[in-house]
User: Fold this.
Amino acid sequence: MQRVAPRATARRIPVRQHPRYRRSPERPSACNGQSVITGPPGPEAIEALQADPVDELVVRPRARGLIHLVSAVVAVVAGAALVEVAWTGSASSRAGWAAVIYVAAIVAMFGVSAAYHRVRWTSPSAEKWMMRLDHSVIFVFIAATYTPFAVLALPPDTGAKALTIVWTGAAAGVALKMLWPSAPRWVGVPLYLMLGYVALLFAEALLIGAGFTVVALLVAGAVLYNIGAIFYGVRWPNPWPNTFAHHEFFHAFTVAAAVCHFAAIWLVIR
Assistant:
């Protein structure tokens, strides 16, 4: 008598334990507490996992995005003061516009990051675009940070060259993040760092035009950014995975670095 092989059944796991499950209009809450049949992940899920596979498969730390949320609020207040000083304390409108560009970028970076990391996005499409925006605005912020120094501390020709390099690089970075959001970290992280290292090309001119204190603040900020980038790239340390993990250390170091560069810009503008 021929034996009939048992029918293969789909693996069942609780809804709340499914790494990609979130409540949404397409997933009614009536099924809460029951089980779901897992199938092949859709393209959006694959894209998200490729972008940050570890973060998608673990519980999001409670402090995720909180540092940048507070920083966004502080940036609005401090940025308003910087713009006021730039417009009232300088004989040229160049300082005012440079301050506006920088402040808009720093508020956007912290604000978008806070929104992306704090909000529980129910739409995979919306989350995907927020991830792209979050990663893209970092390039814009880097270029915007260069802008006050290029306009106010460098000779006109040198400043124009610096602005061309950094804003072209920022545009290329934005294109990368928008068109290839699942690019591995070894592609994206070095691009951020390379754009920051452009300052080395103008170090001597910056020292002459801005002074030792400003350059020291820029170097301190660069070191902090690099440490944060390493934490982001290697996903370490994780002392409190459910509260404050490697990504929170990355955010903390970006804020500390931004404070150093804000202080340097203040000295150049005032």
Remarks:
- Residues 53-269 form a domain with the Rhopdopsin 7-helix transmembrane proteins fold (CATH 1.20.1070).
- The mean pLDDT is 84.
- The beta strands are 12-14, 35-37.
- Residues 239 and 245 are 6 Å apart (CA to CA).
